[in-house]
Amino acid sequence: MLVKILIGLGVIVVGFVAIVATRPSEFHVARTTTIAAPAPTVFNQVNDFHNWEAWNPWAKIDPVMKQSYEGAPAGVGAVYTWAGNNEVGEGRMILTESRPNDLVRIKLEFLKPFRGTGLAEFTFKPEGGQTVVTWSMTGQNNFIAKAVHLFMDIDKMIDGNFEKGLARMKSVVEAAPRAQAAPPRS
After folding, report:
1. Rounded to the nearest 10 degrees, what angle do helices 154-175 and 143-151 cross at?
2. DSSP state, 95?
3. What's the mean pLDDT when you consider all of the chain?
4. Is 46 helix (H, G, I), strand (E, B) or coil?
5. Which residue has the higher pLDDT, 149 or 53?
6. Could you read off the pLDDT of 42-54 as tens digits, one per residue?
7. What fold does the segment set 27-178 form as a domain?
8. Quick one: which of 16, 73, 169, 178 has the most CB atoms within 10 Å?
């Protein structure tokens, strides 16, 4: 009887490993909104990590999260680090590419609760007096991340936070007087 139980458990483990192994190795999440402001104003919200406090959805999840800034004040070389509760974890963002009013690319390094890396991009497309901004993230799923994705829809969790962040960014930018819109820092 014990042998049959062990064989059954072995089959379950092998089956689970096989299912996890077939899961996608890469993930991609993207959300878009239109903001009633010129591209330079919207670009500046992203290009300067100091501006993120007003709309960063993870800062709202953990209001006492520790945040710090290093490197350039904005644009390429700017670094933002955070350490928070279990929901926001710990990590850093490094701004690696900044094309004014067009693109901001950020390398993500997650330290806790799981180690990992990713790439975030913000694109800005002017449409009349408005700007279409898209926030996307891509990354690799290791075996553990693939297993976690079987039980938790991480993509939907990220999507929800992207939607909240873009909605807050829209509110912040659209509420600011146009005369005070600062030119982008690079």
Report:
1. 80
2. E
3. 85
4. helix
5. 53
6. 999 999 999 999 9
7. Alpha-D-Glucose-1,6-Bisphosphate; Chain A, domain 4 (3.30.530)
8. 169
